[in-house]
Amino acid sequence: MRPPRLALLMLLTTACGAPCQKAQVEAAPLSEAAATADRSATPEATAAVPPMAPAAEASGSVKEGSGDGSGACGHYADPIRRGELPAVVDEASGLTSSRWSDDRLWVHNDSGDSARLFALDRSGKLLATVTLEGAKSKDWEDIARGPCAPGEAARSCLYVADMGDNREKRNDVRFYRFAEPESLSAEMTVKAFETMELRYPVGPLNAEAIWVDEQARVVIFSKEEDRTRIFVQPFATGAPVVAALVGERKLPGGNLFVRELVTAADYDAATRRVAFRTYHHAYEWRLPAGAGAEQLAGLEPVALPLALEAQGEAIAYLPGGLVTTSETAGSPLFYYDCRP
Prior knowledge:
Layout (H helix, E strand, L loop, with lengths): L4 H11 L9 E3 L19 E3 L6 E2 L17 E2 L3 E5 L7 E6 L7 E5 L6 E5 L5 E7 L7 E7 L10 E6 L10 E7 L7 E4 L3 E6 L7 E6 L4 E6 L4 E8 L6 E2 L1 E7 L11 E7 L4 E6 L3 E5 L15 E3 L7 E7 L2 E6 L5 E8 L1
Parallel strand pairs: 3-5, 9-13, 14-18
Antiparallel strand pairs: 1-2, 4-26, 5-26, 6-7, 7-8, 8-9, 10-11, 11-12, 12-14, 15-16, 16-17, 17-19, 20-21, 21-22, 22-23, 24-25, 25-26
């Protein structure tokens, strides 16, 4: 969802001053996990964040998805522009990769579009338009890929979050789950999908970032000024369910006009890493064996490089790296290659 116009103007002018100099920010630590939010948690330590890197044009000597071959990155290379979104994706708000093809991305628009999503190749070429027949699209904010059932690795499902709530007036938000199409045609209709109605234990709340773990649990990051609360809910149909609040993360950066707000997240089950981003910065949690969303509040995230984007609201893992894009028409697709 678009921020106030003044805030956006300030972001563009302050982020690209004299001219587009690299900047250092400092990452505040996570507070202790708690059953209720604690706005007054005091950080115990801080970790320096590397400077934002300028985006480079694609070069024939660099191949996206390169890295050490294991999928576990020591660090990510600076962003490289290798394509742009097609005209039909004019307000991208969610992005994830495909189980069935390394050259396929799934993306959807923000509020104002119908209940549809798009399959693209890595250059941004439109491969398919997929409509969820009978689904609602009040304010789609993120998409994730995960198992269709707890511990089920053989099948792949897409999860779409209709949870945007800038005015914090929605008592229930909804999530859709359906089997990821393995083969594509230009126009597709999905009739077989499941719906989860969800409430937050703290009342109506705006959120724009989700990921799904190995147990088919939806993990939600709230979009609040300078912090995000973490909620977990196993996917369930029927009566509305109440998500569990499992932790809170205080966010660095921001200024009088522009606040830090979590706009997207993704999970790589192969390497057990969680990426999340704000309009200004991106970070990654690296989960130790046995850890899950409940332990995020006790882990320190690692800062990631991030392209200078007008209004970045999407981030996704790919084999060998990451991809981000922005919520404006014709936005570039930026790739961040994995490095040992």
